[in-house]
Write a structure and sequence with these properties.
About 45% of the residues lie in helices and about 10% in strands. The strands form 4 sheets. A 3-stranded antiparallel beta sheet has the order 1-2-3. Strand 8 and strand 9 form a beta hairpin. It starts with a helix and ends with a strand. Keywords: DNA-binding, Transcription, Transcription regulation, Two-component regulatory system.
Length: about 425
Amino acid sequence: MAGEKERAQEQPLRFTVLGPVRAWRGEEQVSTGSPQQRALLTALLLRGGRTATAPELIDALWGDDPPDAAIAALRTYASRLRKAFTPQSDVLVSESGGYAVQVGLGALDTDVAERLVAEAEKARHSGDRPRAHELIGQALGLWDGEPLAGVPGPYAVTQRARLSEWHLVLTETRLDLDLELGHHTEVVSELTALTAAHPLRERLRELLMLALYRSGRQAEALAVYNDTRRLLAEDLGVDPCPELSELHQRILQADAELAAPVDDRAHAGPSFVRPAQLPATVADFTGRVAFVDELSEQLATAEGRVMAVSAVAGIGGVGKTTLAVHVAHAARHQFPTASSTSTFRGRARYRRSPTRSWAPSCAPSAPRTTRSPRASRSAPRSTARCWTAARCSPCSTTHATPHRCGRCCPVRRAAPR
């Protein structure tokens, strides 16, 4: 029994704010104290590990009417939180006259939701709508009632409104995916309730009209538009947005394309291939464990955020390109829209600028036709490139990246200088 308790104490803390503000150690809930203590914890958690100064925290908790002993109260709340978090009390740190909460990756439910939403956007962009729908559903499942429930203070009021709006936006995205997947009949009742709760939200009205029309209820879809137009004119003196008016016209015209979900429509025009142009990796890659782990971690945690460029430096021949290609293959699933490689010809006489090198590979390309070996061999040697990624027996060269080769490769592809 004592051993189980010790193991539970060693588990890292995790926090939830998409509902009541709570702290957990494994499956055990940790007390966060009074509403004011939870307000302090909220103000620190939602700053992403950044330090909040004492004046910022006083303003977050009490606004324009702080108590006389506000600084002392902050210190008391911080001390009580540290005691509650023991033995992980070091997550709450004092720094430069302020405080910060520093937690691990995935320890805060908003961070988990952001990661799921970023993965859903990638899946939707790549055409995997069922996966995107599943991920958005998982993100919405993290909400547990009203965000920051029962937490006082002006900062909590602002963040509660932000998180509630985010929840509504994600709900609209999930309902939009439902319609794209053909679940129009199932979402009519939910959309009806949401439009009643948010009568001025035109996006919800648009989704309801589309769901009704695809369910064979054209008259009711038109009635939703008329009700929206009347409501906006009476309350705000404005007309419906262009998207809603366009949908109204398409319903009046019985647009056949509108009646079919996205997955059922015939995609007109040529299809395009997303760039997937990494050279082959070495099958028996060994060593460089620290570099592989560091680069892989940076790529795996870059979802939905701007990432700094990672550079691998070293003298020629030490394996920089092999390392980069190996890590790129391992992280390829993190970037489903494109994976490519390019050379800047750093040691050549005529070097390429990064913009010129990457521009052709950043855009989707049309399907390529395969050239016959005979046609390829007829290309001039000076413009031939070797794309072989294995050791070539005639010249005993391992080609890790495309380069010019005039004598060893049986199949060459013409490429401009």
